[in-house]
Write a structure and sequence with these properties.
The complex is a heterodimer of chains A (413) and B (303). Chain A is built from 10 helices and 12 strands. Chain B is α/β, with parallel strands linked by helices. In chain B, a hairpin with a 5-residue loop joins strand 8 and strand 9. Classes of the chains: A alpha+beta (413), B alpha/beta (303). At the A-B interface, helix 8 of A face helix 1, helix 2, strand 1 and helix 5 of B.
Chain lengths: 413, 303
């Protein structure tokens, strides 16, 4: 994305050692007499090359297993899947090896009596060095970071007002608008699942106690998932007569959901027997005796205790359908969280933003700035964030940071 | 889209004092949604006026389904028009009829011959309409009701849903032998109906007298009171006796048909008894279905 114009609002990043790939970027290549430029490159990038080499060996092993085995067991299917995933890396490694070998061959040509050949050799070395360098800096890293397993999910975004009463509810409305703008900018469709406005009270409050929206589109979950957590707002509330700044909070929870239940069914199925369906409010004799509109529904997933209530629509049928959708999303999210925790326990790096009660961002209105605490990023243009534009930048940075963490883990394996 | 004119506050307070704060904010929102749904381009002035009318009607005690009647009452995935005094479709009915639709789908034979349904005391026509919707294969239905206004309303609903070629509505009195003859000949032309459904009036006189005003003042007594004058028992079961009597007499239902009837609290055993004694060996199996509130609500007999 072209951001040259915006970069003039310089963003401030608190000091935090950036995780780079080996040390290729931070150190100028120390040319010792004994190592040529490519040998130096290999030395600096030894860790990443080791990882790539290991993956290629894994692939070779899998290929052998595949040739030896027969039939289509679950293991076979998994193997085929992994082989397909490793294919691009294998091809990149082949190109690397060829370039590497070609480079070695040019070494002897540097001493060739013919000056034209010497020149050609030098040119060839230069271009090969570029290719090899590119592989180490860009191609291998991008292929090593596993593709997002969640990129086909849509997002269910739940916003709840936290500390701060009416003011928090007003902020929920503001953040909701911000997310609508973000979704629109990214070409995602937004559907409102439920909204609980602040009851009657002081006329046109406009505050929202709780809202659930569905953001639909490929990649929408990957964009919105960084919003999960506590958002803190510091500003003078509309109702404040003495101009004092108040601090309020709202909680955002982003859950994965899919339009294609068959896709998610494969890895994830809810047993209907595990879900208790409660319709709210006793009806007495019920039936013909009563004509109150009673549409509220609550679903409880007994094994996990996760419960979803829905009473937005006049139609019990519709409330039930929405409640199921949210329940699925919460359970799927829980599964993903568990998988992530499992992975995390095997690694030394900290994957940020996994704790839902963590304060992830502060919006300071008087000082017109927004700070994302996970990456220490401050945007000195709050309005632009609320408009959605700078929010996109923040999310891109969070995504990049996440990929760097994953890479760091890979290198530390 | 939600309008926040200053009248909203006043309207909320009017509703609040009548139906309580929780219901007030919910119903106010539903009223606004219903207005927009029906007339998305409505002018601000008309919107305000309509909303105020709704609120005042509701605050005076009119059931919400009647207030929003022309804007359709949700019934399962359907929208049913409601109009006083025709009985407002109940969520309990929605529940057993949905289940019945699924049951019919699962026991239906491989032939794609349409399943025929007779719905007695059809009211808004919601039962045959929902069956049409939830059953996998084609359904043809006849809905009968004693009330002119119900028959007119049901016909409108069926027409709005584009189901006039499948669902027919007829006016008649179940206790009138002449009408019963008409029913029999209609049934004979189909070799008997596959399914007979009914949500007949089932409230005993004593309970009728104690009904809440929202029911008693607005909904048709004929749709609720289950005691006929000639009945000595005052148990609300007159209609069940008449229905099984008719089934026993003529060829109203196929040899292996299904009878599904809704009943009131505590009437399950009695209704099962009425069916068994009248139809005896013809009944292969009887099931007592519970509603979402875990109350026995429907008896389903498989012949």
């Amino acid at each position: 994305m072209f951001r040259a114009a915006i970069r003039l609002n310089f963003r401030v990043r608190s000091s935090r050692p950036p995780i780079r790939l080996a040390s290729t970027a931070s150190k100028p290549p120390a040319q010792s007499q004994n190592l040529d430029v490519v040998q130096q490159l290999e030395k600096d990038a030894s860790r990443i090359l080791t990882v790539v080499r290991r993956r290629v060996e894994e692939r070779d092993t899998l290929l052998k297993e595949d040739a030896d085995s027969q039939g289509s067991s679950a293991a076979h299917i998994q193997r085929a899947k992994t082989l397909k995933e490793l294919e691009p890396l294998h091809q990149a490694w082949t190109r690397w090896t060829e370039a590497r070998n070609s480079f070695s061959e040019t070494t002897t040509l540097l001493d060739d009596p013919d000056p034209d050949i010497r020149v050609l050799a030098a040119e060839e070395r230069a271009s090969l060095t570029e290719v090899l360098s590119e592989h180490v800096k860009t191609v291998f890293p991008s292929l090593l970071v596993p593709p997002s397993t969640t990129k086909h999910f849509s997002a269910i975004v739940e916003l709840k007002s936290g500390v701060g009463g009416d003011e928090a509810a007003l902020f929920v409305a503001d953040v909701l608008k911000m997310y609508m703008r973000l979704a629109s900018a990214r070409g995602f469709r937004v559907e409102t699942v439920s909204i609980s406005q602040l009851e009657g009270s002081k006329g046109s409050g406009g505050g929202i106690k709780e809202a659930i929206i569905e953001v639909q589109g490929e990649g929408s979950y990957d964009v919105f998932r960084w919003e999960s957590g506590v958002h803190r707002v510091q500003r003078v509330p509309a109702t404040e007569s003495q101009g004092r700044v108040h601090t309020s909070t709202i909680t955002v929870m982003v859950l994965p959901t899919s339009d294609a239940p068959e896709e998610t069914e494969a890895d994830f199925k809810i047993d209907e027997k595990d879900v208790k369906i409660e319709v709210m409010r006793a009806r007495g004799a019920g039936g013909q005796h009563v004509n109150r509109t009673e549409s509220a529904v609550r679903l409880t997933h007994i094994p996990t205790g996760i419960s979803v209530s829905m009473q937005d629509s006049r139609s019990q049928h519709s409330n039930r359908a929405k409640a199921w959708q949210i329940l699925r999303a919460r359970l799927l999210d829980r599964k993903l969280q568990e998988e992530q925790t499992e992975r995390r326990d095997n690694r030394r790096s900290i994957i940020k933003g996994a704790d839902r009660s963590e304060k992830i961002r502060t919006y300071n209105f008087p000082q017109n700035r927004v700070t994302d605490h996970r990456i220490g990023l401050t945007i000195p243009n709050l309005d632009s964030v609320m408009e959605g534009e700078e929010l996109e930048y923040v999310i891109d940075e969070l995504q990049k940071d996440h990929e760097e963490s994953v890479m760091a883990d890979l290198l530390n394996e | 889209m939600p309008r926040l004119g200053k009248s909203t506050d006043l309207l909320y307070r009017i509703l609040n004092s009548s139906i309580g704060s929780e219901a007030a904010s919910r119903e106010l929102r539903w009223m606004k949604e219903a207005i927009y749904e029906g007339r998305p381009k409505i002018s601000g002035v008309d919107f305000d006026q309509t909303l105020e009318t709704y609120v005042r009607q509701r605050a005076a005690g009119t059931p919400l389904a009647y207030v929003l009647g022309e804007s359709n009452q949700p019934f399962g995935p359907l929208s049913i028009k409601c109009r006083p005094p025709t009985l407002i479709p109940r969520p309990e009915t929605e529940d057993w009829v949905t289940r019945l639709g699924e049951t019919i789908s699962s026991v239906r034979s491989k032939s794609s011959r349409p399943i025929s349904v007779l719905d007695i005391c059809t009211g808004t026509g919601c039962i045959p309409m929902l069956l049409s919707h939830t059953s996998r294969g084609p359904i043809t239905a006849l809905g009968v009701d004693i009330s002119r206004s119900a028959v007119d309303l049901a016909t409108e609903n069926v027409a709005d849903a584009g189901l006039l070629d499948r669902i027919q509505i007829l006016k008649g009195d179940l206790f009138d032998d002449a009408f019963v003859q008409t029913l029999f000949s209609t049934a004979t032309s189909r070799d008997g109906f596959d399914v007979i459904t009914s949500n007949p009036p089932y409230i005993p006189q004593k309970e009728y007298d104690m009904l809440p005003p929202s029911v008693k003042r607005y909904e048709d007594r004929l749709a609720l009171l289950g005691d006929r004058e000639e009945s000595q028992h005052a148990d609300g079961l007159s209609f069940y006796h008449r229905i099984v009597e008719l089934i026993g007499k003529g060829r109203l239902i196929k040899e292996h048909g299904i009878i599904a009837v809704e009943h009131g609290l505590g009437q399950s055993a009695a209704v099962q008894g009425i069916i068994s004694s009248a139809l005896g060996g013809r009944v292969r199996r009887v099931e007592a279905w519970k509603d979402q509130w875990d109350k026995e609500r429907a008896v389903v007999a498989f012949l």
